[in-house]
């Protein structure tokens, strides 16, 4: 009986420690055909100049930033990507926005501790393309809500698409 309990405890520990992360998603897709990916240290945030003052002040508290686009995603690839992003955001993240339609999906999901947003994932699938970024830092949850309601993350995503082209 004691041996069974130990095996069960070890099994639960392995399962819970193997939850997927955005970094794993990023690493598994950054070399895909038709992908563009970059990670941006805090000191390079100035390339995003020209965004709203709210967005610029938001980035002052950023520690890590990862961005990836996947173009011409096949239906089979989309099915796998959808499963991956859902498994990431369903663990320890709270959806700020999740909008799913027939051929498009938008997710803004955050990990919050004591009213401070520590991690944020933006994910958009539209026209067979994936556009996603991950931000880590210390952000006011009210500021996040304001940026979402003003479509600032969509504007940031557009600015990043312009930058990569």
UniProtKB/TrEMBL annotation:
It comes from the Bacteria. Keywords: Signal. Residues 1-23 form the signal peptide. The keyword Signal applies. This is DUF4252 domain-containing protein. It comes from Lutibacter holmesii.
